[in-house]
Amino acid sequence: MTSGFKHTLMEIMDGSPKHAASRWVELVITIVVLVNCSAVILDSVPEIHAQYKDFFHELEFWSVMFFTTEYIARVWSLGAKYAASEGGSWKGRRQYIFSPFGLVDFFATMPYYLHIFFPYLDLRILRVLRLLRILKLSKYNTALQDLFQAVYSERQAFGSAVFLLTIATVVSASLMHFAEGHEQPEFFGTIPHSIYWAIITITSGYGNVEPVTKAGETIALITGFLGVCMAAIMTGIVASAFSNQVARKKAAFEAQLREIFSDGVVSDEEKETLKRLQAHYRLTDVQVEAMLQRAQNKSAIKG
């Protein structure tokens, strides 16, 4: 009986679509995370902190109890993920504990316990650590994962763009050192100082120092133009990579649909697989319906 409950709890915590409780667990965790992050932001305002510090302290205490319970429940229930012949209960637990999501869940509780054992720790550090709890939401939305996968898939293009950025930065910095070094030695007296100016100008479009010579002004204009070009290149790469990543997810789901319809029979297990994939890929019912229609049409044509 314990084993059955453990397996059910694992599926609920993992967001299995066959359990209605999964959506409620996801919703509650999302609300708690958002409330926590909002409280951390408001607590950094001295006037609000002075008036509501007791409320914020109570909220932090109960939130940590909630996150700790969630973490323990996940670790315990994942003991049902693998049978003894597949590695035993600790295989699933180790995979979670050392996974990115597991580490985020672990560190979501750490600020409170750190403050207990180290009461003189800088509160600003604790606030930053508490704000990292927002990363827990990435478990329920694949946008961040999609971005990383998209960037990784286009790593060669990104490498080329970074190479061009490096060349533009070094050349601009060297020229500014030559043009402005004598006029503004505190800012352009060395190439490393000039590199800082070049990076700021290329990335944000506005340097913290204005050139005073005609040559420096010309170099600054060219550097600003290069910054616009680099922004366009980077934006294009990210947009294209992200679009391709979404297309790959849809293609993977559609391929699974075609495989399921290849024998003309859809079992309950296959329906469960489709629901799980739809939830994982965050596809809408309209998108799934369109893919389903295409898969059925192709299956009918082959038949």
Q: What does this protein look like?
A:
Helices cover 78% and strands 0% of the residues. With 303 residues, it is an all-alpha fold. It folds into 2 domains: 2-141, Four Helix Bundle (Hemerythrin (Met), subunit A), CATH 1.20.120.350; 155-302, Helix Hairpins (Orthogonal Bundle). The protein is built from 14 helices and no strands. The protein has helices spanning 2-13, 20-43, 46-77, 89-97, 100-107, 110-117, 123-131, 143-153, 155-180, 185-188, 191-204, 214-261, 268-281, 285-302.
Comma- or semicolon-separated keywords:
303 residues; mainly alpha; Four Helix Bundle (Hemerythrin (Met), subunit A); Helix Hairpins; 2 domains; 78% helix
Q: How large is the count of helical segments?
A: 14
Estimate nothing, just give the exact number of structural domains: 2
Characterize the largest beta sheet: strand count, sense, and whether it forms a barrel: none
- Specify Rg, calculated over alpha carbons: 27 Å
CATH topology of the largest domain: Helix Hairpins
What is shown here, in short?
By secondary structure, this protein is an all-alpha fold. It has 14 helices and no strands.
Strand-helix topology:
Layout: H1 2-13, H2 20-43, H3 46-77, H4 89-97, H5 100-107, H6 110-117, H7 123-131, H8 143-153, H9 155-180, H10 185-188, H11 191-204, H12 214-261, H13 268-281, H14 285-302
